[in-house]
Amino acid sequence: MCAPLTPNHLEALVRHWNTLSEAGNPESFHSRSHLTRITCGTKVKEKKTSTPVRLITEEELEMYDGSRDGQPIYMAVKGVVFDVTTGKEFYGKGAPYNALVGKDSTRAVAKMSLDPADLTHDTTGLTEEQLQSLDRIFTGTYKAKYPIVGYTARHVLNEDGSPNKNFKPEDQPHFTMKEEL
Fold first, then answer.
1. What's the pLDDT tens digit per position in 119-177?
2. Beta bridge partners of residue 5, listed in sequence order
3. What is the rounded CA–CA span in Å between residue 30 and residue 101?
4. Averaged pLDDT, 65-86
5. How far apart are CA 104 and CA 122, in angstroms?
6. CA of 71: how far to CAs of 11, 26, 61, 83, 85, in Å?
7. Is 129 strand, coil or helix?
8. Nearest residue to 108 (alpha-carbon basis) of 133, 141, 85
């Protein structure tokens, strides 16, 4: 097994993503196998995966709000971006929960609210009961039903653009370490 991702590895990962992004190619950012090569060295078993691990900016997330036909519908909860397109009847244009998509709606999910003031990532001031509800819904609904397409940049980076040292890909719901050869 690989060692846990260190802050230095995370910084290298973010630098690499920034290089791809500056080259106009953020969509190619790190398949899980590529991420494993960075974190575990080059002697790893690589399994092809079609699900990329990506950083998604707030501006990019806004483009996936269900208003464009044929485009996926994305929603973030706790900084994890889910593709909720299969729930189009709930999240699509004009649907009951459309207000939640195209943004990180963590607070709204915790409070079971569609109030525009709650359509934010900010969990400040939530009660213990609301935080427990958030965890149950995050695990029982979103992680169970919808594919993860990435993370909000806020989840991985600090406000100043430096790496969030508390973010550990190996602790994330979709991340799998590959065995060494």
1. 999 999 999 999 999 999 999 999 999 999 989 987 777 777 787 777 766 555 555 44
2. none
3. 24
4. 94
5. 9
6. 32, 18, 12, 10, 8
7. helix
8. 133
